[in-house]
Amino acid sequence: MMISDAMEDEEKWLAEGIAGIQHNAFYMHRALDANNLREALKYSAQLLSELRTSRLSPHKYYELYMRAFDELRKLEMFFKEEERHGCSVMDLYELVQHAGNILPRLYLLCTVGSVYIKSKEAPAKDVLKDLVEMCRGVQHPIRGLFLRSYLAQISRDKLPDIGSEYEGDGDTVMDAVEFVLQNFSEMNKLWVRMELQGPARVRDKMEKERNELRDLVGKNLHVLSQIEGIDLDLYKVTVLPRILEQVVNCKDELAQYYLMDCLIQVFPDEYHLQTLETLLGACPQLQPTVDIKTVLSQLMERLSSYAASSPEVLPEFLQVEAFAKLSTAIGKVIETQGDMPIVGAITLYVSLLTFTLRVHPDRLDYVDQVLGSCVKKLSNRPKLEDSRATKQVVALLSAPLEKYSDIVTSLTLSNYPRVMDHLDSGTNKIMAMVIIQSIMTNQACVSSADKVEVLFELIKGLIKDLEGDSEDELDEEDFNEEQNSVARVIHVLYNDDPEEMLKIICTVRKHIMTGGPKRLPFTVPPLVFSALKLIRRLQNQDGDVAGEEDPATPKKIFQLLNQMIEALSYVPAPELALRLYLQCAEAANDCDLEPVAYEFFTQAFVLYEEEIADSKAQVTAIHLIIGTLQRTNVFGVENRDTLTHKATGYSAKLLKKPDQCRAVYACSHLFWVDDQDGIKDGERVLLCLKRALRIANAAQQMANVARGSSGPVTLFVEILNKYLYYFEKGNPQITSAAIQGLIELIKTEMQSDTATPDRISDAFFDCTLRYIQFQKQKGGSMGEKFDTIKV
Length: 791
Known about the structure:
Blueprint: H1 2-33, H2 37-49, H3 58-80, H4 82-85, H5 89-95, H6 102-119, H7 124-134, H8 141-155, H9 173-196, H10 203-226, H11 232-250, H12 253-266, H13 269-274, H14 276-282, H15 292-309, H16 314-319, H17 322-336, H18 342-359, H19 364-378, H20 387-403, H21 407-411, H22 416-420, H23 425-441, H24 449-458, H25 460-463, H26 476-491, H27 498-512, H28 520-537, H29 543-546, H30 554-569, H31 574-590, H32 594-610, H33 615-631, H34 637-651, H35 657-667, H36 682-707, H37 714-729, H38 736-751, H39 759-778, H40 780-787
Helix pairs in contact: 1-2, 1-3, 2-3, 2-6, 3-6, 5-6, 6-7, 6-8, 7-9, 8-9, 8-10, 9-10, 9-11, 10-12, 11-12, 12-15, 14-17, 15-18, 17-18, 18-19, 18-20, 20-23, 23-26, 24-27, 26-28, 27-28, 28-30, 28-31, 30-31, 31-32, 31-33, 32-33, 33-34, 33-35, 34-35, 35-36, 35-37, 36-37, 37-38, 37-39, ...
């Protein structure tokens, strides 16, 4: 209620002030039209008296000031035309000083002063000095600031600058600089004094009002920056020290922050670079509460953009040792402002690192130095929990990845992993994912064991449980994505040198084996295939030829593989382990290492027998074993017989009869390999097919007993197709009579009263018969063979 009342009162006072200005402006215009100087001065003074109010906020006072300003422009035009008022400008300058009140008097004096300078009847520097001194007569902060703002406004185009009409005859650039600096100094004092006025309960309101007035003060710095005559030497010797002296001595948080920011924004980047030491030297002297991190960040951003603008300016950065000075200044600021939040310090290091990467991308020692400073600041502290600080650390660590597309460059930074150690578990994982994403996006290749060691140390948050990890909080989908990312990284690790590649594999193995049972099924397979790829490259070697000193031999790698896959069986992930054992067995076969291949098959059978209990998984596993064994040719008669006997034995022991049947007839391929040197044992093929037929018959009978009807004839048709395959391949044990008998059996089954109609089985059988008919029609020796079969 009180606030709304105050706002209403203020609106009323503003309306009264505007009405007063309009009333007096009316009579002033009449006097101007009548060329009546005395009346014009009288009503203009009364008009300006409205600006003496102390009741308005800066925002409302500005509205009133602009009304008065518009009228003063008209009065100035009148003053310029001496023939209208018949008074010399010098006399006019004296005359307006007789105004009764100081504020109208000084506004009129500034207005006439503008005309006086333009007339060149007196040196510009003398008039400017007189005006800036006289304005000290108004010490009320708001009234004084607007008065001096008016002085700055009317004098900005009349300063004695290089190329200006007001230069010469003793008027120099130095006079212009002195005037602006003095006006700036006085305005800043008035602005700061506002903070010291009023009780604590109105501080927030006062802070807001001060913020509204800050541009009036900053405008002086803008005017300074526009003076052509201020070269680097003048800026270095006079302008910058005077400004910084005012900034440091005012000891006001708001003023110091705003003026430092303004200083950085308005003056050229080249000047900042050449005066870096002076500018940075002021930073530790500012109030501890000043947001110096933002100021320094903006400075470094400006300098970075300046460096990027042209390669020709880069030597200047080296010449002035910009990095060293910025690094030292940031260290001093952080040390001086002991209570600076950790997020503030890290933000400064992020800005310094960004500056370094843009200006000195080739200086990795600089980059590492920045990271080292950050580590020093973070040391002796618990893990970061402040989300803003954590976000800044991620930005710090991401910057080198974005700059150097090659991840290997970032891996050479010794302090990089030390910074990551200060992240909490969740953020560590996020950063690890960022690193992996960088590798994948840039298709980077990490090709040495040392670099792999560093890389896996960086992404350890994904590879093993860190302190503070909670399994309950882990989302399964996120976890799977993380582990798949690690798997993708393993695939891009490569070196042409087999020895180095083996070292890489060993390094990765050391890390992933600490991952625990949930991670191993994701991380072991890619490493196994990476090792198998290396084995293929070494296929023509064996351990004896390569010599004992060379560890990169297939035998050595197979030993590692055995240990890695064995870890999966403890997870347990027996089905995955079995698949990997079979992959290794196939690779050992290609390397002509019979004992190794036999060992892998043995391990696969052990897993099948002891660990795989699910019937569906058993079916899949036995078919994988049969398929792999069929492709191997390294075994002698004894070893092959042992393995095939095991495979056929397990096939016949599957839970469901149809599964038994299919596995047993698949085993027939173990005795007939269709290549030049392949085994061709027709009798054992026939035995497998007959056994499969018996099992299919048993399945039909069981179906008849259980459901009162026999099942579909699909199994018989499948076996018929196997008979046809071997008949076509020339197995002497498979006769046309046997095929004929099987066809008749199927037809009989399909026509029996207990048969279950099944369109799929019928179509399958019809297709098979059409195939036989097709072979007959081909003619030749194959046609003759098939002619004996009646369909």
